[in-house]
Design a protein that fits this description.
single chain; alpha/beta; Isopropylmalate Dehydrogenase; 2 domains; 10-stranded mixed β-sheet; two-stranded antiparallel sheet; 11 helices; binds 3-isopropylmalic acid; binds manganese (II) ion
Length: 349
């Protein structure tokens, strides 16, 4: 029996999650899975109502689940940073979800802004470190509000944190991909401390995977190559900040936020899966948001739980819906409502 916590969250999050659960339940029936879901009311609405973002008791409860499905967080009436830090980042840190896994895969029939590139060219994953780097929140402001003020924001990179991330990337490449290549994305020419550690760790860990090609590219160059030669990539491993940035680029070349999903993972422990786009508040309640990212997130969740067959079947169904039905992956331009897209995926599943 899999125990799955559901955090629908803000804006269009609940509409997306509803379709994700619809597909999850269909997969359950089709593949004879046993699962139990418990929904948690967390996000901007609750914060505005009660002042609570993530009560410690809820955090403790979440640790007893196998996985979490998150819709989206972000509320127009809540100052930027409060929910991000108090909910999303706190969950990543406190549950020690040290991997942010973001597949970049273009399905047939989906439009990419890249000229002359197709599904055979755009198929890689980014393994983003998810608990350290610039996101660690260390630093501070000195003499705030004065002309002498100083702001310091530090990037924390530990050997332990970097090593487990790099190892995950190589293992993922070997076990879940074809074992072709792992590319380290860094900035060794400027960030000569942080990426010195990354580079040495990458070489040391990489030596244990002799069959896998090791490659390195600076983050700025990666942005260029992801547009010009996305087919070069198989697995890209990088730090938290660079991973955040390059995965938005990744999302757009695979068809946009309507389909981009990610997993916040700690192997063997409760892990959290989400559409990587935001809460898109302007589309709330209009049945126009694309639920495929949330549906892809449920596929990643099942894959994480070891239900690889069910996960792959959901992904095939999504690909079919993209190829045969949707006019576009953008909200309001799909040619179908949010609920109808979920129904279509269930039909092909
Ligand atoms: C993401 C988001 C978050 C991040 C924000 C909402 C804090 O952009 O998941 O990529 O920066 O990690
Ligand atoms: Mn981001």
């Amino acid at each position: 029996m899999y125990k799955i916590a559901v955090i629908p969250g803000d804006g269009t999050g609940p509409e997306q999650v509803r379709e994700g659960l619809k597909v999850l339940e269909a997969a359950r029936d089709r593949y004879g899975l046993k699962l139990e879901t418990v929904s948690y009311d967390l996000g901007g609405e609750r914060y505005l109502r009660t002042g609570e973002i993530l009560p410690d008791s809820v955090l403790e409860e979440l640790k007893s689940f196998d996985a979490i499905l998150l819709g989206a967080i972000g509320h127009p009436d809540v100052k930027p940073g409060i929910l991000e830090k108090g909910l999303l980042l706190r969950l990543r840190f406190e549950l020690d979800l040290y991997i942010n896994l973001r597949p970049v895969k273009l399905y047939p029939g989906v439009e990419t802004p890249l000229k002359n590139k197709g599904p055979q060219d755009i198929d890689f994953v980014v393994v983003r470190e998810n608990t350290e780097g610039l996101y660690a929140g260390t630093g501070g402001i000195f003499k705030k509000g004065t002309p002498q003020e100083v702001a310091i924001q530090e990037s924390i990179n530990t050997r332990f944190g970097v090593e487990r991330c790099v190892r995950y990337a190589f293992d993922y490449c070997r076990n879940k991909r074809k074992g072709r290549k792992v590319t380290l994305c860094g900035k060794t020419n400027v960030l000569t401390y942080a990426f010195d550690l990354w580079e040495r760790t990458f070489q040391a860990v990489g030596a244990e995977y002799p069959e896998i090609e090791k490659d390195y590219a600076h983050v700025d160059a990666i942005c260029m190559w992801m547009v010009k030669n996305p087919e070069w990539f198989d697995v890209i491993v990088t730090d938290n900040m660079f991973g955040d940035i390059i995965t938005d680029l990744g999302a757009i070349i695979q068809g946009g936020m309507g389909i981009a999903a990610g997993g916040n993972i700690h192997p063997g422990r409760v892990s959290m899966f989400e559409p990587i786009g935001g809460s898109a508040p302007k589309y709330t309640g209009r049945n126009v948001i694309n639920p495929l990212a949330a549906i892809e997130a449920t596929a990643m969740l099942l894959d994480y739980l070891g239900e690889e067959e069910a996960a792959a079947a959901i992904q095939r169904a999504v690909a079919t819906v993209c190829a045969k039905h949707l006019r576009s992956l953008n909200a309001g331009e799909m040619g179908y409502g949010t609920d109808a897209v979920g129904d279509l995926v269930v039909r092909y599943l």
